[in-house]
Amino acid sequence: MELSIYNIDGKESGVKVTLDETVFGIEPNDHAIYLDVKQYLANQRQGTHKTKERSEVAYSTKKMGRQKGGGGARHGSIKANIYVGGGRVFGPKPHTYGFKLNKKVKQLARRSALSYKAKDNAITCVEMFNLEAPKTKEFIAICQNLQVADKKVLMVLPENNNNIYLSSRNLQRTKVVPVTELTTYDIVNATNLVLVGDTANTLSKLLAHK
Fold it and tell me: Which of 17, 38, 188, 196 is the most exposed place for a label (fewest CB within 10 A)?
């Protein structure tokens, strides 16, 4: 699959890039995408929720009444879960939600997500560019020239670029990431991919099936 490379003015540069079929043209594996997205979202959870058990509640330890002769059930502590303010039984405890996922499954998931985007013609390639200073207005103008300003955009850079990142940080529907930090969730969550510079070839090297 060949794509034209545009400049930041939205015009074709006359150069084309060939997308690697083993990365952008495979039969997508939906289950691999599901697992990778599930792991990504699980890793975002803090897992710090906690409730107090009866041994942690700050109440008196005095026995509430005598064992027998009270006319009702026996009770030994106001910390019991049946009382308001008592400890909770089987409440949540801090723990991690993350789980292990094999590297090859994660690579398959990213290749599958990229293949979906290629099938939907939702990939735009643009020449490498730089901004002299963080300017959101200039970044919006570039997106408008590339006809992706009204879409949910994921811009993938060949390497970190602080000025481009800061220029896009204020835009809710736009995310900028270096190619080494690209995740399946980011790809699936975006409507359009904008590959900057030599990113397409870098992805082919990183995700090549081994």
Answer: 38
